Amino acid sequence: MKVKLYDPMEDVPAFDQIDKARRDEVLKVLLAQYVERHGLGGMSKGDLDALIIHLFLKCSKKRFNAFDLSVIFKIKESRIKSLIETAAVKFEEDAEELIWMRIVEDWASSITEIESIEKGQVVFKFEHPGHFRFIQNEVRIAGGTVSYSRSSEAMTISLATLFKVLDQAHGHVLKDKKGFQYLIENLLKKIKNDLIGQNELEKIKKDKEKKLKLTQIISTASNLVSIGKVVSTVFGVPAV
What we know:
There is one protein chain. By secondary structure, the protein is of the alpha+beta class. The chain folds into two domains: 14-90, Cyclin A, domain 1, CATH 1.10.472; 96-235, no CATH class. Helices cover 59% and strands 8% of the residues. A four-stranded antiparallel beta sheet has the order 1-2-4-3. The longest helix is centred in the C-terminal third of the chain and has 17 residues, at 180-196. The protein is elongated, with a radius of gyration of 21 Å. The chain starts with 13 loop residues before the first helix and ends in a 5-residue tail after the last helix.
């Protein structure tokens, strides 16, 4: 079911934005964390703010971006993003596999540009600062680098590292999680068709003199254990 987006022009109280069926859950978790776990007044104000934002996002009826939340809670967007990041570390209870499903789905729907076809770098619009640590951890394991600007909500990563991260996530986090291969295939098709373009890709593959890095990256990725077949099928490049 498609999640309805929030209209910041709607003058609706924060409480009314929470799904009625989940309001008891919000109160239960809030009391469990603020009273039972820490003792009344034992939780810092920053953590309490982060918990409130976390519960609001988790149990609301619509999808909100940082601007929407800054309007509702009357604080700066930078503060909202900081609270979301804190909440992800301290209060996130979703399994890592579900988080990775969301990450890949968000990547496929928010990919913006190939920064350099020759270097094979891709830029994503990435709105959830709390999920970036999962990406950063897999990038670290892959021996690559990734840059992320929380203010501009832009993440830049090389395609070589992106392929390795997807392969790792598929291999030791998601394994045979239903639907993940479809999400990866959809993401790769977006990169191929929307950003590189079929004509440009064909030209690059035929240009033996330039030996562009992009071709080498895709060919190497087609040998990866978990996603190699998908890469080979989508880009039409045989394994090396």
